[in-house]
């Protein structure tokens, strides 16, 4: 399949508008992660709703568009919730996107009672022939319903390589050939995997069909304990740039080179830092060739693996790995023991807690600040850990926040004003969701209370009186980030 050459671009996050609107046209592609724009209404038959006004504003920008899914990955044995397809297609069609993509991982399994559970983290699929077949079924179930070509992103995998599994490159190649789809090659992910003890970049590139690489993702990362994290945190590491220079001339169907940055890092990295990354990518784009005649220069030192599926199915792998991440209980089977001994499992568990807390803070900032000011650091950390152990993660931050608020209410903590602030922020979420104004009560002046918390101070001895505060929907309701991802 021939893919249109779009050029150099950015994943959209709020604050990058000056670069997208710049008259110099340096940013040629806008990649949207549509799920982070969705409003989530769990009580509805169609719970996922686009913000069409905002989509239309993005569509009016001059860049070519692509759509990148971040909430319903396609690497596992469970077909993603089919209800996400209509709004996903709506985003594709509204933006006139050239292609769409999702991650070659899973984030949903079942618990011991067979109930579906979110993992809260992108987890690696089983890299065996049965894992290939499961991923291919899932990819086809999604891609067959889309109006544009579909690609899968190469993920980060923090786990140790397992005996009897395919290499990362062999698994990726088998999946994309079997599902007949493209590759979104996240070069920073592959480099991170090498740093963390998995397959080398050289070997990975030697094993995948380079003609199926439609898009490159580049990003920054950071050191965290003994691991290098795919953190989307700033400058593209020099070795990743060097690998891109070597690789790009051998990608005849390369359609875009895209830089990723998480919104939390934009204030520190700045528009100047993002523009620096754009300039680096233009230099890389100059190496692009449409020739199919060049033989790949990458050499594999990986032995071919004939995977063994006996006793280990994709479903079993997903259930056991999810259980070790979410609720380790010392199961005595061999697979559980192996997973429990892998230090990456503890890493993922810790990162999962941080991501869940970040999702809660996005909606309950003042409530969390009051908790942190009122509790010792160890006590606050234990509260969050206990919450995470008591309930599985949610895909959307709005539902995670509701669950956390319910959990805090049941604790009946003796922290002045906590439940008033919590009620205020939960009510504000409802107002943003449906646009209907609401009134909340306070036992002190809410403006003084919130301003005190905003300064990072505990509210001491505020005058007592009965107050009512009306919460009205903001005039500008676009880009309410509700998705709990990565």
Percent of residues in helices comes to 40-55%
Low-confidence stretches: 477-486
Q: Superfamily at the CATH H level of the largest domain?
A: Divalent-metal-dependent TIM barrel enzymes
Question: Helix/strand/pairing class, anyone?
Answer: alpha/beta
Number of helices: 17
Report the strand count: 16
Q: What is the global morphology?
A: globular
Radius of gyration: 23 Å
Can you tell me about this structure?
With 486 residues, this protein is of the alpha/beta class. The protein folds into 2 domains: 7-285, Divalent-metal-dependent TIM barrel enzymes (TIM Barrel); 360-471, no CATH class. The chain is built from 17 helices and 16 strands. It has helices at 17-20, 52-60, 85-95, 129-143, 168-179, 187-195, 201-207, 238-247, 266-285, 314-326, 334-341, 343-361, 365-374, 377-390, 397-411, 418-434, 446-454, and strands at residues 7-11, 29-32, 39-40, 48-49, 64-68, 100-103, 106-110, 116-123, 150-153, 182-186, 213-218, 222-224, 227-229, 256-259, 438-442, 467-471. The protein has an 8-stranded parallel beta barrel. The protein has a two-stranded antiparallel ribbon with strand order 3-4. Strands 7-8 form a two-stranded antiparallel sheet. Residues 477-486 have low confidence and may be disordered.
């Amino acid at each position: 399949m021939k893919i249109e050459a779009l050029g150099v671009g950015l994943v959209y996050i709020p604050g990058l508008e000056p670069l997208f609107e710049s008259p110099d046209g340096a940013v040629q592609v806008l990649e949207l992660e549509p799920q982070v724009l969705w409003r989530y209404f769990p009580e509805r038959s169609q719970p996922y709703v686009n913000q069409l006004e905002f989509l239309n504003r993005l569509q009016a920008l001059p860049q070519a568009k692509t759509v990148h899914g971040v909430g319903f990955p396609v690497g596992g044995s469970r077909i993603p919730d089919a209800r996400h397809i209509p709004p996903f297609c709506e985003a594709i069609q509204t933006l006139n996107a050239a292609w769409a993509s999702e991650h070659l991982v899973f984030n949903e399994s079942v618990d011991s009672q067979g109930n579906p559970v979110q993992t809260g983290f992108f987890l690696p699929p089983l890299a065996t022939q049965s894992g290939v077949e499961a991923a291919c079924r899932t990819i086809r179930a999604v891609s067959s319903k889309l109006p544009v070509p579909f690609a899968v992103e190469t993920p980060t995998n923090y786990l140790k390589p397992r005996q009897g599994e395919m290499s990362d490159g062999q698994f990726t190649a088998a999946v994309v050939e079997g599902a007949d789809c493209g590759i979104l090659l996240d070069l920073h992910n592959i480099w991170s995997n090498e740093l963390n003890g998995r397959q080398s970049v050289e070997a990975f590139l030697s094993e995948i069909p380079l003609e199926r690489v439609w898009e490159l993702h580049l990003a920054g990362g950071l050191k965290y304990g003994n691991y290098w994290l795919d953190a989307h945190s700033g400058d593209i590491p020099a070795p990743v740039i060097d690998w891109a220079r070597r690789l790009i001339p051998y990608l005849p169907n390369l359609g875009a080179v895209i830089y990723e940055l998480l919104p939390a890092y934009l204030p520190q990295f700045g528009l100047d830092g993002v523009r620096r990354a754009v300039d680096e990518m233009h230099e890389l784009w100059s190496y692009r060739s449409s020739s199919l005649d060049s033989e790949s220069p990458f050499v594999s030192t990986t032995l071919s693996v004939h995977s063994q599926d006996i006793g280990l199915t994709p479903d079993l792998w997903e259930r056991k790995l999810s259980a070790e991440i979410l609720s380790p209980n010392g199961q005595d089977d061999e697979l559980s023991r192996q997973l429990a001994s892998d230090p990456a499992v503890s890493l993922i568990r810790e990162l999962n807690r941080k991501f869940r807390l970040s999702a809660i803070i996005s909606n309950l900032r003042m409530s969390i600040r009051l908790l942190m000011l009122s509790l010792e650091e160890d006590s606050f950390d234990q509260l969050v850990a206990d919450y995470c152990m008591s309930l599985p993660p949610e895909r959307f931050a709005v539902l995670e926040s509701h669950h956390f608020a319910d959990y805090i209410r049941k604790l009946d903590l003796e922290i002045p004003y906590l439940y008033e602030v919590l009620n205020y922020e939960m009510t504000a979420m409802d107002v943003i969701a449906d646009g209907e104004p609401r009134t909340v009560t306070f036992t002190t002046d809410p403006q003084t209370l919130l301003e005190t918390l905003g300064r990072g101070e505990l509210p001491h001895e505020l005058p007592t009186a009965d107050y009512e505060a009306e919460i009205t929907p903001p005039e500008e309701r676009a880009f309410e980030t509700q998705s709990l991802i990565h």
